[in-house]
Amino acid sequence: MTRVATVAYLGPPGTFTEEAVGRFDQCRDAHRVAYPTVAEVESAVRTGHADAAVLALENSLAGSVLPTLDLLAFSSPLLIRAETILPITLVLAAAAGTRPAQVRRVLSHPHALDECAGFLGRHVPAAVREPYASTAASMAAVRAGALAGEAGLAGVGPRGAALQHGLDILADDIADNPHNATRFVLVGRTIGTPTGRDRTALVCFQPADHPGSLLGILSVFADRGIDLLRLESRPARTTLGQYCFLFDCAGHVFDPPVWDAIRVLRGKGAQIRVLGSYPRAD
Fold first, then answer.
1. What is the C-alpha separation between 269 and 276, in angstroms, rounded?
2. Which of 57, 98, 159, 263 is the 20 to 30 A CA-CA neighbour of 92?
3. What strands, in cross-sheet order, belong to the sheet with 91-94?
4. CB within 8 A of 245, min separation 6: which ones?
């Protein structure tokens, strides 16, 4: 992918998503534009207001980021062009002078709250956990609350966002799992060319559900020696009880074995959408 002039991301500034932007070579010199929702990030690229966007796709603890996954699978024509794995280090921060025993409300993105649930239960057990649009937004809300005289507020998020808003770090590296990481993807309007170390993301809608239907799909890839890297099901958004399968496989969609697998499945009546082919991150 060529250099990106303008990149959209889920704001406000200071989110892990913005940190991930800088990890993509294509975006090193790009103008960054923050949007308040994932849908608006996607729309900026689809309508040409941005050349590409960075979205969180999967967390090692909380699993898939469903707003991103569902957007790409069901409603967006955008395609994944690249990925990066960002280690996630969370801090607990509050207004200057606040002690952990004084914390009554903890604000953060739902995934961040999940990722440090054990720590919060041990160290601020009386605090109510309140979901927020992003980790950075929660830090801004803590600062705004403190300026308004509200005591007992704390936020969970990036150290940089906490310091940006003048908050004290009450505890560092509070995630329950030291291997916490998030996979971010760079999406654009076209598909990338093969690199020899790619993965392809697909969504498959079955013509009808029957015993062994998933096995039949998987065997098409196994028969061609294609490694499946990820698999999950999501409601197909048709009728209750109908599901589609989302999976990643090794290889590029233009590699003959992958393309042949897609051809065979389509020949059996399955609807296959390619969500992207892109180099695998280390």
1. 21
2. 57
3. 128-131, 105-108, 153-157, 91-94, 168-171
4. 203, 204, 206, 214, 217, 231, 232, 233
Q: Residue 75 carries which DSSP code?
A: I
Question: Residue 253 carries which DSSP code?
Answer: T
Residue 189 contacts by C-beta under 8 Å, 6 or more apart in sequence?
45, 46, 77, 78, 79
Residue 29, SS3 per DSSP: coil
Cα separation of 132 and 98, whole Å?
21
The average pLDDT across 109-121 equals 90
Kindly report, residue by residue over 27-39, the tens digit of the pLDDT.
Answer: 989 999 999 899 9
User: 203 with 141: CB under 8 angstroms?
Assistant: no
Q: φ, ψ for residue 4 (rounded to 5)?
A: -95, 130
The CA distance from 53 to 33, in Å, is 9
- Among residues 131, 136, 113, the alpha carbon closest in space to that of 36 is found at 136
Environment class of residue 154 by beta-carbon count within 10 Å: exposed (0-12), middle (13-18) or buried (19+)? buried
Q: How far apart are CA 56 and CA 182, in angstroms?
A: 7
The pTM score is: 0.84
Spatial CA neighbour of 137 closest among 117, 118, 110: 110
In the DSSP assignment, the letter for residue 14 is T
- Residue 145's H or E segment, with its range, is helix 135-147
Stretch 227-234: mean pLDDT: 93
Whole-angstrom Cα distance, residue 194 to residue 124? 49
Amino acid symbol at 222 = A
Are 152 and 102 contacting, i.e. CB atoms less than 8 angstroms apart? Answer: yes
- The string over 88-101, giving b where at least 16 C-beta atoms fall within 10 Å of a residue's C-beta and e elsewhere, is bebbbbbbeebeee
